[in-house]
Predict the structure.
Amino acid sequence: MQAEQGVIDRARYPKHIAIIMDGNGRWAQQRHLPRVMGHPAGVKAVKRVVEFCAEQKIQVLTLFAFSSENWRRPKEEVSKLMGLFMATMQKEVNRLDKNNIRLRFIGERGEFSDKLQQKMLESERQTENNTGLTLVIAANYGGHRDLTLAMQSIAKQVKAGHLSPEDINESMIANALSIPDLPDPDLFIRTGGEKRISNFLLWQLAYAEFHFTEKLWPDFNAQTMQEAIDDFLTRERRFGRTSEQVKNMRAAS
């Protein structure tokens, strides 16, 4: 979106974009290829989107790479995904580091192989001091599980006598969830035509703007990212206020 002087008004851009990357398998099937062949094509789309977000000074990009429910998929596909996950990290972490991108992971790592867990930890450590885009990969992640673990953590503090139930508030719950130090997503994108959030960042998406597209993930690129942001910029984000209040706040700022 252009300002009056023809300069991009990045101040209104989303600070945090969260994406469900859907459609890899269907993309491959449309080309009469095995489903698993869609995942390498999806990795190429990830590279394009990460590059776009870094260039546009987006603060955080969170990608839903593998949900806690994805273990139900055929064993061969899961195995291929794990291999691709490892190979991609080995190949790309130096590129991310060189471009000042910080890599983080959310989700339960215990079900991954020891080798993959170690590589995830090494990748985070290598990039932890970078100050550009923060790239969050949700792997074996589920919003229900995220909330459950947060509640268990708080309940342990109550049981130990460090908290009373009356002390529990929204801020405390948010701080017990994944990535509490990052802003909540402003823009949620799902590719592939489905219109649901599939147990992704349930708490954090409370006030996000939703953008659904029929485009399959391997076909996603800078242009379709810009279209999603342009759509976001048309939204009036009221956060419970009236339109008049929002206009008055803008005029006062």
